[in-house]
Amino acid sequence: MQRRLEPELMNGDTQVQAYAAADFSSGDQATIEAIQRLLSRTSPLPPDPLVVDLGCGPGNITLRLAGLFPKARIIGIDGAESMLAVARERAQQQQLEISFLCQTLQEVLRGALLEQADLIVSNSLLHHLHQPDLLWMVTRDLAAPGCRTLHRDLRRPASDAEIQQLLLKHLPSAPEVLQHDFAASLAAAFEPQEVTAELHRLDLDELTVSAEDDRYLVVSGLVKS
User: Which of 20, 45, 105, 206 is 20–30 Å from 139 (CA)?
Assistant: First the structure.
């Protein structure tokens, strides 16, 4: 099945409210556990690391990262200010010191964080991008020596029929906006071999791409050893 693009930003009121209210705890925990496995097979982070969450949305992963690394400087970046408003409110409620920046990936590449990050993560960002190489360029250019990275995203099924099967399996009673977005995101996602080819093109061969369960892929490893 050919990839079908979807909007890069999720900033409509209905979307923001639906995603803020949805329970993504299982997937969020899977991302955190994947980060922990990455660190266990490489080495611990520095005592006061810089951790960057790209495409952080309402802060689901960012808040968990702040709990996991209490001495870290945590920065969440997203292009949708409406999503970040939810993230900031959540961080304030939990009394967490997190910086949230409203920036596109192009702006990140021109920003002040280059070559500083010790851990770079994203969750369900890649499939939104019309220029997917931007994620890998940002990952490469933000990385300090020894930086670890983990990007977890959907992977594209072979057909629309398979998309409908996944929708019925995983979101049978979800709000319509979430069902619509899930189907659109699956169609916009990448296959592992496509990601592997892009990483090779950008000299990021130290990163590995693996399939996870019936609908995800994970990109992880050292950006700069």
Answer: 20
